[in-house]
Write the structure tokens for this entry.
Amino acid sequence: MKERTRILVVGGGYVGMYTALRLQRKLKRELARGAAEITVVTPDPYMTYQPFLPEAAAGAISPRHVVVPLRRVLDRCHIVIGEASAIDHAARVATITTLADNEKGSGGRSGGGRAVAYDELVLAPGSVSRTLPIPGLADHAIGFKTLEEAIGLRNHVLEQMDIASSTRDPDVRDAALTFVFVGGGYAGVEALGELEDMARYTTRYYHNLRPEDMKWILVEASDRILPEVGEAMGRYTVSELRRRNIDVRLETRLESCADRVAVLSDGARFPTRTVVWTAGVTPHPVLAATDLARDERGRLRCTAELAVEGAPHAWAAGDAAAVPDTTAEDPGRDCAPNAQHALRQAKVLADNIAHSLRGEPLQAYAHSYAGSVASLGLHKGVAHVYGRRIKGYPAWFIHRTYHLSRVPTFNRKARVAAEWTLAGLFKREIVSLGSLEHPRAEFELAAGGKPSQDPPDNPKGSS
């Protein structure tokens, strides 16, 4: 090992956090004597356990229990809150932009990015929402990839119910109670299932709203939903959602949501104040700002040992990496970009970095796909585990048990388990805290200033 090995981890999600966590254990002696240092660059000071986002949106889990504070978990790493804007691996230099760089200095100029040198690079920036040039999408749609988006969507749905309850205009009421979800993967189906369950429960506290007054629409471009759980369970999911009066439209695309009207490719038009976009993800833009090899989908080309092809001392895993699936029957297939692979790849990646620094043989990543589980709301779910098809309450229970075992740290496991236990004893929370998105608005108004402009879907101040 060199006199001082500098390891740079770009990204604090699944792969980034678990890689850094395992590295600080594997290199404990080297870190103690200063022979190695680990720097983690991440836009947020926490890791979000994304499978819990639908339950956080439905109020089943507190938002703070869905995230893991990186500074507490990675106590032997340097945490830098910022983003990598460019990477020159040939020179072993990454350009990092931090929060401080966006502040104006004494000379009145912004600081700009700064160069960070490294010896070993781990690229794990994850992915971003894949959008299309659909009219009105950027202005009106809501994503479902971050905790902020999940909580914002919960507040938004409850506010729409308040709008519908307080108006006599049938057009306003109908648009407020129409919810369109685009994308039939995990994110779309689970978010729709949990929020519909929550909203249906919430109607009991409104004197003039009934569950059948709401329209929930799922739009999917392909001929099936939840392909990960198999065709049979996908068909069951469609029938289960339709039994709950959810309008599932397969082989249909969203063509426009301009002027708050969702126009579908089958000719249907739905005036709506809610369009949730969950139609896939794309690799993080930073990958295009590197000198590393990428595939046709923009992911880094990796070996089975999780090293970037043709780039010694560069490593990658998760959504950003095209990792060959050594267990697949068909040669040339890559591992699916899901949490199941990401968690296991992070362990192998960290081990291989330690092996590489010590001159030891590397280990190839190999994991046979165990199956998939999905929640469709409280006590409802589907699963395809080790070839067995499971549905209803057993699948929902497996979903919760599996993800409880995977959420990082005993602290978070205990808190989530306690919240689920209490939720079984008491009623749901149905409070909207939409004002959190504009915490200074009321004070600005009281101080004689002009309050910040509310978003178009916020009823405050509207006529």
